[in-house]
Amino acid sequence: MFPFKKILVPTDFSEPSFCGLKMAGEMAKHFDTEILIVNVHKPIPRLPKPRVEASETTFDISAYEKQILAEAQDHLIELGTEIFGEQIRPRVIVREGEAAHEILNVADEENVDAIVIATHGRTGLAKIVFGSVAQRVVRRAKCPVLTIRSC
What we know:
Layout: E1 6-10, H1 15-31, E2 34-41, H2 61-84, E3 91-96, H3 99-110, E4 114-118, H4 124-130, H5 133-140, E5 145-148
Parallel strand pairs: 1-2, 1-4, 2-3, 4-5
Helix pairs in contact: 3-5
Protein backbone atom coordinates (compact mmCIF):
# COMPACT_ATOMS: atom_id res chain seq x y z
CA MET A 1 0.00 0.00 0.00
CA PHE A 2 2.69 2.52 0.87
CA PRO A 3 4.37 4.16 -0.87
CA PHE A 4 1.43 5.02 -3.09
CA LYS A 5 1.96 4.37 -6.79
CA LYS A 6 -1.13 6.17 -8.12
CA ILE A 7 -2.83 9.18 -6.51
CA LEU A 8 -6.09 10.77 -7.62
CA VAL A 9 -6.40 14.52 -7.05
CA PRO A 10 -9.79 16.11 -7.77
CA THR A 11 -9.84 19.83 -8.49
CA ASP A 12 -12.57 22.40 -8.94
CA PHE A 13 -9.95 25.05 -9.78
CA SER A 14 -10.31 26.59 -6.31
CA GLU A 15 -7.41 27.68 -4.12
CA PRO A 16 -7.88 24.80 -1.63
CA SER A 17 -7.80 22.27 -4.47
CA PHE A 18 -4.46 23.72 -5.61
CA CYS A 19 -3.14 22.91 -2.13
CA GLY A 20 -4.19 19.30 -2.69
CA LEU A 21 -2.32 19.27 -5.98
CA LYS A 22 0.80 20.66 -4.34
CA MET A 23 0.63 18.01 -1.59
CA ALA A 24 0.24 15.23 -4.16
CA GLY A 25 3.15 16.71 -6.11
CA GLU A 26 5.40 16.49 -3.06
CA MET A 27 4.39 12.86 -2.56
CA ALA A 28 5.06 12.13 -6.23
CA LYS A 29 8.55 13.62 -6.08
CA HIS A 30 9.51 11.44 -3.11
CA PHE A 31 7.83 8.18 -4.08
CA ASP A 32 7.76 8.17 -7.91
CA THR A 33 3.97 8.31 -7.88
CA GLU A 34 1.63 8.73 -10.85
CA ILE A 35 -0.76 11.67 -10.44
CA LEU A 36 -4.27 11.71 -11.90
CA ILE A 37 -5.95 15.13 -11.87
CA VAL A 38 -9.74 14.95 -12.14
CA ASN A 39 -12.27 17.68 -12.78
CA VAL A 40 -16.02 17.01 -12.76
CA HIS A 41 -18.68 19.24 -14.33
CA LYS A 42 -22.40 19.11 -13.66
CA PRO A 43 -24.36 18.49 -16.83
CA ILE A 44 -26.56 21.32 -18.06
CA PRO A 45 -30.24 20.52 -17.40
CA ARG A 46 -32.28 20.04 -20.54
CA LEU A 47 -35.92 20.76 -21.22
CA PRO A 48 -38.04 18.32 -23.20
CA LYS A 49 -37.52 18.55 -26.95
CA PRO A 50 -39.80 21.09 -28.64
CA ARG A 51 -42.43 19.91 -31.10
CA VAL A 52 -41.30 22.42 -33.70
CA GLU A 53 -38.06 22.47 -35.70
CA ALA A 54 -35.15 24.33 -34.14
CA SER A 55 -34.18 27.54 -35.88
CA GLU A 56 -30.70 28.70 -36.77
CA THR A 57 -30.62 30.79 -33.60
CA THR A 58 -31.13 27.82 -31.27
CA PHE A 59 -28.39 27.40 -28.69
CA ASP A 60 -26.61 24.03 -29.07
CA ILE A 61 -26.22 22.73 -25.50
CA SER A 62 -24.33 19.59 -26.58
CA ALA A 63 -21.72 21.61 -28.46
CA TYR A 64 -21.38 23.99 -25.52
CA GLU A 65 -20.84 21.08 -23.09
CA LYS A 66 -18.17 19.60 -25.38
CA GLN A 67 -16.44 22.98 -25.51
CA ILE A 68 -16.53 23.32 -21.71
CA LEU A 69 -15.08 19.83 -21.23
CA ALA A 70 -12.33 20.47 -23.81
CA GLU A 71 -11.43 23.77 -22.15
CA ALA A 72 -11.34 22.09 -18.74
CA GLN A 73 -8.97 19.45 -20.16
CA ASP A 74 -6.65 22.16 -21.52
CA HIS A 75 -6.80 24.08 -18.24
CA LEU A 76 -5.91 20.95 -16.26
CA ILE A 77 -2.85 20.37 -18.45
CA GLU A 78 -1.74 23.99 -17.91
CA LEU A 79 -2.41 23.70 -14.18
CA GLY A 80 -0.36 20.50 -13.97
CA THR A 81 2.59 22.17 -15.70
CA GLU A 82 2.27 25.26 -13.49
CA ILE A 83 2.15 23.32 -10.22
CA PHE A 84 4.43 20.36 -11.00
CA GLY A 85 6.81 21.90 -13.53
CA GLU A 86 8.57 19.50 -15.87
CA GLN A 87 9.32 16.89 -13.20
CA ILE A 88 5.85 15.35 -13.05
CA ARG A 89 3.52 14.69 -15.98
CA PRO A 90 0.06 14.11 -14.51
CA ARG A 91 -2.74 12.42 -16.41
CA VAL A 92 -5.84 14.58 -16.65
CA ILE A 93 -9.41 13.34 -16.65
CA VAL A 94 -12.53 15.42 -17.17
CA ARG A 95 -15.93 13.94 -16.35
CA GLU A 96 -19.51 15.07 -16.36
CA GLY A 97 -21.86 14.19 -13.52
CA GLU A 98 -22.16 14.44 -9.75
CA ALA A 99 -18.69 15.25 -8.36
CA ALA A 100 -18.33 12.72 -5.52
CA HIS A 101 -19.83 9.91 -7.59
CA GLU A 102 -17.53 10.54 -10.56
CA ILE A 103 -14.43 10.93 -8.36
CA LEU A 104 -15.16 7.55 -6.79
CA ASN A 105 -15.81 6.01 -10.22
CA VAL A 106 -12.44 7.21 -11.50
CA ALA A 107 -10.75 5.94 -8.34
CA ASP A 108 -12.23 2.48 -8.91
CA GLU A 109 -11.61 2.41 -12.66
CA GLU A 110 -7.99 3.50 -12.27
CA ASN A 111 -7.39 1.39 -9.16
CA VAL A 112 -5.76 4.31 -7.33
CA ASP A 113 -3.87 3.84 -4.09
CA ALA A 114 -5.05 7.11 -2.51
CA ILE A 115 -7.14 10.21 -3.06
CA VAL A 116 -5.89 13.66 -2.06
CA ILE A 117 -8.88 16.00 -1.89
CA ALA A 118 -9.31 19.55 -0.69
CA THR A 119 -12.10 20.65 1.58
CA HIS A 120 -13.45 24.19 1.61
CA GLY A 121 -14.08 24.01 5.35
CA ARG A 122 -17.73 25.01 5.18
CA THR A 123 -19.70 24.69 8.38
CA GLY A 124 -23.25 25.23 9.55
CA LEU A 125 -25.90 26.14 7.02
CA ALA A 126 -23.47 26.34 4.07
CA LYS A 127 -22.44 22.73 4.70
CA ILE A 128 -26.06 21.61 4.97
CA VAL A 129 -27.13 23.45 1.82
CA PHE A 130 -24.12 22.68 -0.39
CA GLY A 131 -23.03 19.39 1.16
CA SER A 132 -19.45 18.31 1.03
CA VAL A 133 -17.94 16.45 -1.88
CA ALA A 134 -14.90 15.67 0.25
CA GLN A 135 -17.10 14.25 3.01
CA ARG A 136 -18.94 11.96 0.59
CA VAL A 137 -15.66 10.79 -0.95
CA VAL A 138 -14.16 10.05 2.48
CA ARG A 139 -17.23 8.05 3.51
CA ARG A 140 -17.44 5.91 0.37
CA ALA A 141 -13.87 5.54 -0.93
CA LYS A 142 -12.29 2.09 -0.98
CA CYS A 143 -8.79 3.56 -0.64
CA PRO A 144 -7.18 5.98 1.83
CA VAL A 145 -8.26 9.62 1.47
CA LEU A 146 -6.13 12.55 2.56
CA THR A 147 -8.11 15.76 3.04
CA ILE A 148 -6.38 19.12 2.75
CA ARG A 149 -8.01 22.25 4.17
CA SER A 150 -5.49 24.87 3.04
CA CYS A 151 -1.77 25.36 2.58
